[in-house]
Each structure stands twice: as C-alpha cells, then as structure tokens.
Write a structure and sequence with these properties.
2 domains; 64% helix; 363 residues
C-alpha cells in the first residue's frame, strides 16, 4: 500500500513538472512572438517615417504620435480639375484614411496620389497592383511646392536686401551681404568666367546664382526635421536640368550646332557616324545633371534616417550609441555634400553654357 502511494506521488510530481515546463515554454514562446511582433512594428514605423520624409505630401506634418494617431502640422489646398475646378483642403482626407466628398464626386488619397472613387473609397487594381481608377488633373499645393514658394520669397527678400545694402553703403558689404559676397564672387570669378568666358558670362549669372543658392538652401533644409526633400525629388531635379538644357540649346551659336551635326576637321564619313552620337550627348548631359543631384540627396537622406532608426531597433547603450555617433558623422558629411552638390550643378551648367557660346578659333 505504501509503495502504491509513493508511485502515485511520483507520477503526480512528474506530471506537475511537465505541466510547469510546458507552461514556461509556452509563456517564453508567447514573449518571443510578442517581441518579434514589436520589432516588426518598429521597423514598419521607421520605414513609414523614412518614406514620409522622402515623398511629397498634400499636408505639412511636423510631428506625429503613432499611439494616439495625432498629427501636428497643417493641411494644404488640393486643386483638381475634374469636369470643372475642385478646390478643398487636404484635411478632408484625414491623412489618407477618409474619402473626400466634393460636390457630387468622391476622391481617395493612395500613396500620395488622388483617385476618383465611390463613397466607400473603393480602388480597383491591375495585375501589378496599380490602381485603375481615374486620376483627375492635380494642381495641388503640395509640401514641396509650398516649400519652394517660401524659399523663393525668402531668396527674393534676401537679395533685394543685399542690393539695398550695397547702395546705402557705397558698395561696401555689411551684415549678411558681407557673408554672401565671397560666395557670389567665387561663382563669378571661378565658375562663370573660366567656363563661359568674359564676353558672355553676364548673360548666365542670374541663373547660375539662383540655381546655386536654390540647391544649397534646399539641401540644408533637407537635413532638418521638417521633412523637406525638394532636391531629393526626381521631378524637381528634372525641372532644374530642363531649364539648363533649354538655356543651352536656345543660346547656342552656329559653332555649337556645327560641332554637333557637322564637326569641322573630321572626314565626312566619320561625321555621319559621329553626328547621332553627338546629338545623343545633348540629352545625356542634362540627364546626368538631373540624376547626380537626385541620387546623392535621396541616398544621403535614406542612409541618415536609417541610422537614426537603428537607435530604436537596437534599444541598448552599445547599438544605439554607435548609431547616434554614425548619424552625427553622416550629418556632418551631408553638410559638405549640400554645398558640394550645389557647386557641381552650377559648375556643370556653366560648362554646358560655355560649350554653347564657344566661338570658333580660325587659328
């Protein structure tokens, strides 16, 4: 009898131990799954934050709280042409979560683009998961457009103030004029005159100064937490390169076009072969100008924000501290890159203008 009781106690003890081990392993597995889900949520939030910084938007958001869903910023006007002019504020979309009703039409915001939908915001997709819904013509004041307006007004005020400062002080720079004068003189003496020539450089100085300070100021603004990424936007760099392209072609002299279609000093069979290549180079030059600025700024912002995001993923003194110092080092490098990319864009533009106005040397 005593032996049977001991056997029952032993069986119960083993069963209890197995149950305890099972519960412990089950709890550990739950914690592991929970930690894994939390890590995925953090990564998804960081990825969303990077994309929000890099892409254009119909509102200007300074801060956002993912837990409460609150956003701190201001909405921008949406201007559409859809069987007439439709104007409303982007707050109607509630950051892409709601359908905006304007008159009898419904519009939904999907990945920064506006589509015409029904009252439920239904979107139809093709095999590549691209929406098939109709897109109205969008003339909205987006975040990038709003930033360009603000910077254009600031640059106009700044240089008018500098001009008045010169006139008041008999050509002696004071204040901000004293800081910017060496930069302006450098662009004139080291970029415009050597590449374009003393005879023609004045025709292009306004554009060269404008594009230099435009690119430089926006490169610096892109390093702030404001979420401005104008020069890292493909459409903006395309527009800048297009202006350089048109200025080059419309101001090109006879010698410029002769070197493209009928190169002097080259046998005529080679001229036939080289002419298409030279003509292709006319379009490759502004394309390279566009890609260089876009790729450098876009990549720099992506790397910097990814390093900042690693601080939240590591969540410890070693990993987060290392990410912080790497982010700080990259930020210092980006300050140099901001100025360097403005210099390169201005330099190459001046070089193309120089090719366009170069005069033939008979000697």
């Amino acid at each position: 009898m005593r032996t049977k009781v001991l056997q029952i106690i032993a069986v119960l003890s083993i069963s209890f131990n197995l149950y305890a081990q099972h519960e412990t392993s089950h709890t550990s597995a739950e914690h592991a799954v929970k930690d894994q889900h939390e890590e995925k949520d953090i990564r998804a939030e960081i990825k969303e934050g990077i994309q929000h910084h890099l892409k254009d938007a119909h509102d200007f958001i300074f801060l956002s709280d993912s837990e409460s869903g609150k956003h701190y910023g201001f909405s921008l006007p949406v201007i559409l042409w859809d069987n007439g002019l439709k104007i409303f504020m982007s707050s109607k979309f509630h950051h892409g979560e709601s359908v905006a009703k304007v008159d009898d039409a419904y519009y939904a915001l999907h990945h920064g683009k506006i589509y015409k939908t029904d009252a439920e915001g239904t979107l139809e997709y093709d095999e590549h998961h691209h929406p098939l819904n109709e897109k109205p013509l969008d003339f909205s004041i987006t975040k990038n457009v709003f930033s360009i307006f603000i910077l254009a007004a600031f640059m106009l005020w700044l240089f008018v103030k500098i001009a008045k400062s010169y006139s008041k002080n008999d050509g002696i720079p004071k204040g901000i004029a004293g800081f910017l004068e060496p930069i302006i003189l450098y662009i004139r003496d080291e970029i415009a005159i050597p590449n374009i020539g003393e005879k023609h450089y004045k025709r292009y100085m306004n554009y060269l100064l404008t594009v230099f300070f435009f690119v430089w100021f926006f490169n610096l603004l892109g390093l702030t937490p404001l979420g401005i990424n104008v020069t890292g936007n493909f459409t903006i760099t395309f527009a800048l390169a297009l202006v350089t392209f048109f200025l080059t072609q419309f101001t090109g002299n006879k010698n410029y076009w002769m070197h493209i279609f009928w190169m002097p000093g080259v046998p005529w069979p080679m001229k036939i072969i080289l002419a298409p290549i030279e003509l292709l180079g006319v379009f490759i030059k502004p394309f390279a100008l566009m890609i260089r600025l876009y790729a450098n700024i876009f990549a720099g912002h992506t790397v910097l924000m990814s390093l900042i995001g690693l601080m939240f993923i590591f969540n410890n003194w070693i990993g987060s501290g290392l990410s912080f110092f790497l982010s700080f080092a990259i930020s210092l490098i980006e300050l140099l890159v901001a100025l360097l990319q403005a210099y390169i864009f201005t330099m190459l533009s001046a070089l193309y203008f120089g090719f366009a106005v170069e005069e033939h040397d008979d000697h």
